[in-house]
Write a structure and sequence with these properties.
Blueprint (H helix, E strand, L loop, with lengths): L4 E4 L14 H12 L3 E5 L8 H7 L3 E4 L4 E4 L2 E5 L4 H13 L4 E4 L4 E3 L5 H8 L7 E2 L11 E5 L2 H8 L5 E7 L2 E6 L4 H12 L6 E5 L5 H6 L2 E4 L5 H4 L4 E2 L7 H8 L4
Parallel strand pairs: 1-2, 1-12, 2-3, 7-8, 12-13, 13-14
Antiparallel strand pairs: 3-4, 4-5, 6-7, 6-9, 9-11, 10-11
Helix pairs in contact: 1-9
Length: 257
């Protein structure tokens, strides 16, 4: 079988509604590797937020921070931090409007303020506790992604006059902030280049708004049954809900396992 590369989103794709990796998914990932394919994670999470998943599934390639920090077989091949002046501009406005932020570096994240309910609730949905506080962290280290804590109606106000960054909502109370040119698609392209494969050899699996560019670009887009409607419109293969072993079923339908 011709070698392929398979990109797997985490939340809602690898992890089910209980935040667990189904046994069928573990077996499917192993089958992909047994069949000689590359397996890569493609996520909005920071590398330090899914190290346990990489270890459990024995995956050494990943697109993290929605494409801003990319590793191929254990080697860092792409880094695209947000420009410090753009972060400062956004932070100043967020602070004036009393919205909290979290700044995410290579190995840690820092919050701009203490005891913010939006931070606590949204990060808890991923199984993470409140970060340490350092509102000046983005002055000290490269920041590959930030989190802005606000509701959707408030996000639109920020997006209308911060042209150098992108806002991608992942929770009712929070959105990712990326460089304007950042996306999972960019990370996918970097990994394809490193693996010396074409986009036709790429299979991308996902369920969220941050998967749109990746699913559209990959040779085959496998979209979960629990995906947002916008992503389902781009699907080459629409599989079952993540809680119904959708990932394993989709990979079988694609003929990869």
């Amino acid at each position: 079988m011709e070698k392929k590369i398979v990109f797997l989103d985490i939340d809602g794709t690898i992890l089910n509604s209980q935040g667990e990796i189904p046994q069928a998914t573990k077996e499917a990932v192993q089958a992909l590797k047994d069949n000689g394919h590359y397996v890569a994670i493609a996520t909005g999470r920071a590398p330090f937020m899914f190290e346990d998943i990489r270890k459990e599934l024995d995956i050494a390639s990943f697109v993290s921070y929605n494409g801003q920090y990319v590793v191929f077989e254990g080697e860092v091949i792409h880094q695209n931090p947000i420009a410090r002046e753009h972060l400062l501009h956004l932070y100043n406005e967020a602070s004036e409007k009393e919205h909290a932020m979290v700044f995410m570096g290579e190995s840690i994240m820092k919050a701009s303020e203490t005891d913010n309910g939006f931070i606590e609730e949204s990060l808890a949905s991923l199984g993470f506790t409140y970060p340490d506080i350092d509102k000046d962290y983005f002055h000290q280290e490269p920041i590959y992604q930030a989190l802005l804590f606000c509701e959707e109606k408030e996000e639109e106000t920020f997006a209308s006059h911060h042209d150098h960054v992108r806002f991608i909502r992942w929770h009712p109370l929070s959105c990712d902030v990326l460089p304007r040119d950042g996306s999972k698609k960019v990370g996918l392209m970097k990994l394809l280049e490193a693996a010396q494969l074409s986009e036709k050899s790429a299979y991308a699996c996902g369920d969220g708004l941050n998967d749109l560019e990746m699913i559209a670009y990959a040779g085959t887009g496998i979209v979960m049954g629990n995906a947002v409607p916008e992503l389902k419109e781009l699907a080459d293969i629409q599989t079952a809900h993540v809680d119904e072993n959708g990932l394993a079923l989709g990979l079988k339908q694609a003929g990869l396992i």
